[in-house]
Amino acid sequence: MYGWIWRALPGSLAIRVFTAVVLAGLAAVVLWYLVFPWIEPRISLDPAVVGR
Length: 52
Fold this sequence. Notes:
- The protein is 65% helix and 0% strand.
- By secondary structure, it is mostly helical.
């Protein structure tokens, strides 16, 4: 899959690296600010509950 993404990116090596870094950062931001806050109330990660 990563090979396919790398081949699909346009431009030279420098542009591909820049685009890959931007896309990875965008994915991290979407996960951090949208997905994780949405899923956090739906799962129990309270350390006090673990081990009971």
